[in-house]
Specification:
about 350 residues, mainly alpha, 7 helices, flat, CNTLN, Centlein
């Protein structure tokens, strides 16, 4: 800018000198020098203007870079603040988790103590149950002994009747003993009847649950049978459809081959000889031969036998899953082969 100002000042001075030189009657030689200097100064001024524009563009680009860097710094500062907040949150979370861990550890200790106490109680209950079982066994043994004694006392009672006059005192003692044994017998009979009643209730409930499960299994078996029957029918139906499609495709190929082999004039000539239309002639060409009908009959019989075989498998006894799987896989493989044949025929016809 200073150089530009200096050059502009020199230009103004030169212009002033040229004006003064034009007014004065001077020689033409110095005016030429002044013009050349003017041109040089103008050239320098242009160069300085170009440099100034370049420097202004560089300054603008530098300002833009500075602004971009300042924005980047602001973004980084915001990111740092966010990261600091996240870090503080994570620290709080870690502290919370540590406190929870301590609480859980304390809860685990208390739960372990309660578990130990419960185990002790269970052991005590198991001991009580075993003691009760042993007491029940002893009562049973006593009942058997009492029944034996009853029989013995009855025998003795009959003997004592014969010797009534001689052994009155013994009879009174025996009667008192009999009363005691009868009381014990009644007590034992009541306890045994209660236990038997509880066992009968439990067995009745178990029988009801078993009957419900049997009904559910029967329903499931019926659903499985209907599913297998529907699946086999659908398989057989799809295989029959594929066979008919293959036959139709073969017929179409043969008809097209016949049409290609015969020209339109020969077709019309054959129709005029047979005194039929061209469409009737095409239908005559499409008639099935005896071998094809026999083949379809054999296939239908095979399908029928296959369905009967699956019905026999379903009605047979267990296990029959492997045989059923083999039969269905056989039909699926047949369907796969028919699909491949049909796709190849369709490609050739297209």
């Amino acid at each position: 800018q200073q150089e530009k100002e200096d050059l502009q000042g020199k230009l103004k001075l030169r212009e002033h000198l040229s004006r003064t030189a034009g007014k004065s009657e001077a020689t033409p030689a110095p005016s030429k020098n002044i013009d050349s200097e003017m041109k040089q100064l103008q050239w320098k001024l242009k160069n300085s203007n170009n440099e100034i524009t370049k420097q202004s563009t560089t300054i603008k680009s530098l300002k833009n870079e500075v602004q971009e860097r300042e924005e980047r710094i602001r973004e980084l500062q915001a990111k740092i603040s966010r990261l600091e907040r996240d870090l503080n949150m994570k620290r709080h979370l870690i502290e919370d988790l540590r406190s929870r861990l301590k609480a859980n550890q304390e809860n685990e200790k208390t739960s372990n103590e309660t578990l130990e106490s419960l185990e002790r109680k269970v052991k005590a209950l198991a001991g009580d149950c075993s003691n009760k079982k042993t007491s029940i066994d002893s009562l049973k043994q006593r009942l058997n002994v009492a029944t034996k004694e009853k029989s013995q006392y009855e025998q003795m009672y009959h003997k004592a009747k014969d010797e009534l006059e001689k052994k009155d005192l013994k009879l009174t003692n025996l009667e008192s003993k009999m009363m005691e044994t009868e009381c014990a017998m009644t007590e034992l009979e009541t306890t045994a009847s209660q236990q038997l009643h509880g066992l009968a209730k439990q067995s009745g409930q178990a029988l009801e649950t078993v009957q419900k499960k049997l009904l559910l299994t029967n329903d499931k078996v019926e659903e499985f049978m209907t599913f297998v029957k529907a699946l086999t029918r659908e398989l057989q139906h799809s295989v029959q459809e594929l066979r008919t499609k293959i036959k139709q495709a073969k017929k179409m190929g043969e008809v097209r081959a016949c049409k290609k082999g015969l020209s339109q004039e020969s077709v019309q000539l054959a129709a005029s000889i047979l005194n039929v239309s061209t469409t009737d002639l095409e239908e005559i060409l499409e008639v099935e031969d005896d071998e094809e009908t026999a083949k379809t009959k054999m296939e239908f019989e095979k399908d029928k036998e296959w369905l009967q075989y699956i019905q026999k498998l379903l009605e047979a006894q267990f296990p029959f899953a492997s045989y059923l799987m083999d039969a269905i896989m056989e039909k699926l493989n047949e369907k796969k082969k028919l699909l491949e044949e049909y796709s190849s025929l369709m490609k050739h016809t297209v």
